[in-house]
Write a structure and sequence with these properties.
Blueprint: H1 2-22, H2 32-41, H3 43-53, H4 58-82, H5 87-111, H6 121-130
Helix pairs in contact: 2-3, 2-4, 2-5, 3-4, 4-5, 4-6
């Protein structure tokens, strides 16, 4: 019985080591999934910061660019429609709710280590990343 206990602990220990190895370190020394979350946590500002800091990690750059494209677009759009009385305020509120939902989903997916592509924006980000010479 002691052997099975040791064996299960050994297997469990290997899983811990494998999961720790899955998250590569980055320029800041953080696991890449944590940096990806930080790209979204501070919206487009965080995206710009991590786009500048991480010039070699494609996983972080993907999340940074997606954060910039989504949240900067939502901010500009909310500002523009916010100028329109009543109707614009209603649409601005809906955009805020949409932004919050996207914010939570993208942070959750990034924390799980997923390269989650948002509709339309994810493809745009990947096409920009194909042209790395622009950065």
């Amino acid at each position: 019985m002691d052997e099975t206990k040791k064996e299960s602990n050994h297997v469990h220990g290997d899983k811990i080591k494998e999961s720790q190895a899955d998250h590569k370190k980055t320029a800041l020394g953080l696991p890449e999934n944590i940096e990806a979350v930080l790209c979204y946590l501070f919206a487009w500002v965080g995206g710009i910061v991590f786009l500048v800091i991480e010039n070699k990690n494609d996983f972080i750059r993907f999340h940074a660019l997606q954060s910039i494209f989504v949240f900067l677009s939502l901010n500009v759009l909310s500002f523009i429609v916010g100028i329109i009385p009543f109707f614009g305020w209603f649409v601005g509120g809906l955009l805020s709710l949409l932004g919050f939902a996207v914010w939570v989903i993208t942070m959750f997916k990034a924390y799980k280590g997923e390269r989650y592509k948002l509709p339309f924006v994810g493809d745009l980000v990947e096409s920009v990343m194909m042209n790395k010479k622009a950065f």
